[in-house]
Amino acid sequence: MNKLITIITLLSVFLISPLQAQEKRNIDSLVFTKFYSKVLNEDRKIVVHLPLNYSRESSKKYPVMYVLDAGKLDFDTSDRLFALSSSGLVPECIVVGIVNNKNSRERDLTPPFMQIDVEETTSPAGQGDRFLSHVEAELIPLIDSCYRTTGYKTISGHSRAGLFVLYTLIERPNLFNAHFCFSTPAWRFDNIIVHRLESSLRKQQMSDEGYLFLSVGENENANIKSSFDFMRLMLKKLNLKKLKWDSYVTPMANHQTNPIYSTAKGLMCWSKKLMLK
After folding, report:
1. From the first residue on, what is the mean pLDDT of each consecutive set of 10 residues in the chain (277 residues)?
2. CA–CA distance from 140 to each of 101, 133, 183, 256 (Å)?
3. The pTM is what?
4. 170-206 as b/e, with b when 16 or more CB fall inside 10 Å?
5. In CATH, what number is assigned to the domain containing residue 248?
6. How many whole angstroms separate alpha carbon 142 and alpha carbon 269?
7. Is residue 145 part of a domain?
């Protein structure tokens, strides 16, 4: 019976549309916020998705899921959480979608040890270090001051944004408790980010148990799939006690559809391993 309930719930996750899910929630569950970043010297925007009963349960606190590339993956994540948490399969969370400024995505989400353009030798290096400082020093404190948060934080990213997610694990291993990477092009510049991650994981001391979810579409290009396999082998070899991880090859998915199909899988794996022991 429990398996049947789970199957029905997961079907609802994939069949429900963003509009249908949003209609079921209070209109106040979406908050669009604009603020000035001193670190980046520019205005930034975020989209905050509040849980269904946030305004009704005035004393309850929630984990926060920070989602890069707001406008797509944050709505998908919020919708999957809505369906799964309603069935008690994952905890309710606040979702914060981080909006890209015009022409800022490549600059912000590329680690500083990688060039923005993989094919252009004179391409500038990424400024992911500045963006990480902004997230740590400005965005997270803003959310914690405005909303009821538990202090538990996750970060999610698709494609280039997945590189930034891995970069946060390298540079600030205790900033986020869980990391979700969808279709990450980790192969760039001879898998440099995988090598950097391995070196960092060997040295770092994580204060709490962390989690990493990796997914790739079955129909993605050979480079992304090969680096996905390379990273899995690295993690198996390290066998870290404080970093739990899962990997998933999404059937019939390509680069664009993989995060849509595998977000629910990642949330279920995360919840099972860390949150609902």
Report:
1. 41 42 56 96 97 91 97 92 92 97 94 89 91 98 97 97 98 96 96 96 80 98 97 95 94 96 96 70
2. 18, 10, 25, 28
3. 0.89
4. bbebebbbbbbbbbbbbbbeebebbebbbeebeebee
5. 3.40.50.1820
6. 29
7. yes
